[in-house]
Design a protein that fits this description.
- The chain is 30% helix and 20% strand.
- The strands form 2 sheets. Strands 7-4-6-5-10-11 form a 6-stranded mixed beta sheet, with no helix packed on it.
- The longest helix has 12 residues.
- The chain is globular and about 45 Å long.
Length: 205
Amino acid sequence: MRRISIDELLASREETFRLRELLGKGGVVAIPTETFYGLAADPWSEAGVRRICETKGREGSKALPVLIGVRSHLDRLGVEAHARALDPYFQIWPAPLTVVFSISQPIAASRGLRKLGVRLPADRRLRELLRAIGPVTGTSVNRSGSPPLDNPDAVEGLFRRELDWLVDGGRTPGGLPSTVVDATSVPPEVLRPGAYAWVRPPTER
């Protein structure tokens, strides 16, 4: 496993290119988020998604959330929602809020479903990285049933043989995981309470 600081990574186009290339070939990387470390793979890569499921020891049919860096990434993911339906969430984002949208066709991360959980994370450096490399999966770094990890040393200690890179952003805030809301329901349904105190989208107040 290679360990590189996120600041060093962001300062080098060559390094971000290497990371993007690695993910495109089915690589799996740990990245720091505004809550815990996440397992990042190319969301279209069946090999990468399968590796994450094996690493976590979780059911392979369970969808993985995806992190985006800019609004246009939703189009790349095939999100089916009009701008007016998306605007309320972009009034909240960036935030620890994962929103489930309909997508035009399944991708590897959605595990056969035409729904996908998406988040524009609150961590500025992570958003900058995502703008450079594109959307990635963002499920927490942990074995299924164990607490998620916020310490890069713990990530390296437990997963050094299963990860290709560890992007070191120092200790993350931890606390609660992201709140998950299903925007395909009317009104949107909270699937998991978490770090963002959900009431309802601003335009619905």
